[in-house]
Write a structure and sequence with these properties.
single chain, 323 residues, alpha/beta, Spore Coat Polysaccharide Biosynthesis Protein SpsA, Chain A, 2 domains, nine-stranded mixed sheet, 12 helices
């Protein structure tokens, strides 16, 4: 604790009905050789006795129990509103920290006051820790929410996630805001967090398709400047329509489009677009964040269409399309 009685690090965990996984995540925090911390758990209306168990067995953990499931962004916003640490570690309830993670995170943040977000390296539970870990980081334009850490003063300046996103694209929203305000987003391959690979979790899950189709459009309408907004609104609308058709959830896509249209006038009136330079920097840097094991159905659809369209073009390049 510092002279103000504040910990250096807040480890924030949002959970729902995953008590056994959550306890493993908590044990990984206590196993760190780092004591200047607090653990803050936001219980997204669990029905498995999560809050009661934590209050009984871990009285030093701060527990906030919500009356409804707000999803990851809404739940994490409660972490940020109640955290006391200078740095906030976003730990998923089905992940756990690698050895020495917190100490390395603090060293990374304190090496450069302009670093606002640190992305952690994801390892699947079956992967072995490399014998030598890199000790340097590089700039990227994006991060994964459950494998990241934030500087509190950055959130104080730029704000937090949109409360109504529930799932998907909240990281893009915050990345754009951070870059626009001049904060660095870095990825550090030597700071480890264990977590199931995304492909295994979400490749066939249709329950959240509404947010997969709606939220990317809301990011564009809210934050993309000038002609970029109209360009990417068209590109994303068409691209996600193709993806929805292939996933067999086109009716959900239409409902998502209807929600965007219903909010369009209000969103356009209140929007605060980022500087075009920040948007171009985001596009240039976001590909530098590795997504181990992930094969995005949307991205595969877009790249497949692009490749088929370019077949037969003399000298066609293999560069990716920004979308």
């Amino acid at each position: 604790m510092d002279s103000r009685g504040r910990p250096k690090v807040t480890v924030g965990i949002v959970t729902r009905n995953r008590l056994e996984n959550l306890l493993q995540a908590i044990r990984s925090v206590y196993a760190q050789e780092f004591d200047d911390l607090e653990i803050l758990v936001v219980d997204n209306a669990s029905e498995d006795g999560t809050a009661e168990t934590l209050r009984r067995d871990y009285p030093d953990i701060r527990v906030i129990r919500l009356q409804e499931n707000l999803g990851c962004p809404g739940g994490r916003n409660h972490v940020y509103a109640n955290s006391r640490g200078d740095y906030i570690v976003n730990l998923d309830d089905d992940g756990y920290l690698g050895d020495g993670t917190l100490g390395r995170l603090v060293e990374t943040f304190e090496s450069d006051a302009s670093i606002g977000i640190v992305g952690l390296r994801q390892l699947d539970f079956t992967e072995h820790l490399p014998s030598e870990l890199p000790d340097s980081c590089w700039d990227t334009g994006l991060f994964r929410g459950g494998m990241s850490a934030f500087r509190w003063s950055m959130l104080e300046e730029i704000g937090v996630y949109p409360d109504d996103f529930f799932f998907f694209k909240e990281e893009e929203f915050l990345s754009l805001k951070a870059l626009d305000a001049g904060w660095r987003i870095v990825y550090h391959p030597g700071i480890i967090m264990y977590h199931p690979l995304m492909e295994k979790q979400h490749s066939t899950d249709r329950s959240r398709d509404y947010y997969l189709y709606r939220n990317p459009l809301l990011v564009v309408v809210t934050l993309f400047p000038g002609l970029y907004m109209w360009k990417y609104l068209f590109l994303r609308t068409m691209s996600y329509a193709i993806w929805a058709f292939r996933r067999g959830s086109f009716q959900v896509y239409l409902r998502a489009i209807g929600a965007v249209v219903a909010k369009l006038t209000r969103t356009l009136f209140h929007r605060h677009p980022v500087n075009p330079v920040a948007l171009r920097r985001y596009f240039a840097l976001r590909g530098r964040l590795p997504f181990p094991g992930e094969k995005s159905g949307f991205r595969q659809t877009i790249l497949g269409l692009r490749d088929r369209r370019r077949k037969g073009r003399p000298g066609a390049s293999g560069r990716s399309m920004s979308s």
